[in-house]
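Example A, followed by Example B.
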Amino acid sequence: MFGQGFQKAYPDIKVTTLSAGRGSVRIQRIMAERRARIYNVDIYIGSPTDVTKTLITAKAVPPLKPLLALPEVVDRYHWSQHKDYYIDKQSKYTLMYEGTPQGGGIVYNTKLVDPKELKSFFDLLNPKWKGKIISIDPLVDGSSQQNLSFFYNYPPLGPNFIRRLYGEMDIPISRDDRQVLDWLAIGKYSFALFTRGTEDAIDQGLPIAMIPPGLFKEGAFVSPRSGLVSYMNQAPHPNAAKVAVNWLLSRQGQTVFQDLHRGWNNSMRENISKDKGLPIYRRQKGVDYMMANPAEYIDLTPIRQLLKERP
């Protein structure tokens, strides 16, 4: 989606995007090419885990800030809390430009679940939902990671919530997002966890919806779904990359970003219209959201060990 907007803004710069498949698959391809001394990528837009576990560890990304040149990009006054959000420990490699409130990655069948009856994350542990919840594999890199990080690190929930959720509720595991959403839509399951493609399924009119951020009394978190940008070293087109990064972070670029995502994503830039954004994904003033992807939360080793120990 980034490529479409940038190409329209700069028709003389040819854009080639690699967007098919999960982020982990794209990262594997990029790293395989780099080991063969093939450098095809100028900038990478992806998830926190892709970047911190692989690109930064491999020293494949240099500091991003030297590329920032436009006054409206350098000046952070119009960004959330008037500051940069870098997700790496050094606060210089990977900039977070999206901060979308999220509610834990929980999707439900609207014919089987009345969200008004749900007041807490712990309501999912009600025995009546046993065997009625399905999950995308939480041990695989992907959409589960930021939600699990929130569950694990947020004091009102913590490790015990994850232990009970996956240990008591007879949750089947799948790696097929489409199949999970189909099963949810036909009522085989009442809830699904961490599916990709949920927005498209809802747009198609399937009887499913997402638990909105803030519905549960424990709160919500702010995180990028994929709104992170890094600059690759050995970039084949450094000048074009500089133009692209500055456009992406500009007022125009962030407006295009939000519009292309049909309101499902919320830019960290505050001086653009949020009218097209879905109300549930707008940050509310005065709310102290948990930031679910700081560098110290990226290591999912203790969470995965916990999951492996489940009955």
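Example B, a separate protein, is given below in the same form.
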Amino acid sequence: MQQPLFVADRASLDRAAELIDRFGIHARGEAATRASHSRDVGNVLHFCRWRQVERLILALSLAEPVGTLH
């Protein structure tokens, strides 16, 4: 069973949409690169934000819905 996706705020969705528009199929890789850079410089907050964006990009790219539909 797929884990439900938590979205902290609208800004995360905006970042995901921006990366998808700019990088297309490479958007997840770009988010992962940004997360890694944030981790490397010790910025835990930005690391977590970019990891969430990476998960959102994956969820937005799925053909089938995941979780409960309302």
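On Example B: The radius of gyration is 12 Å.
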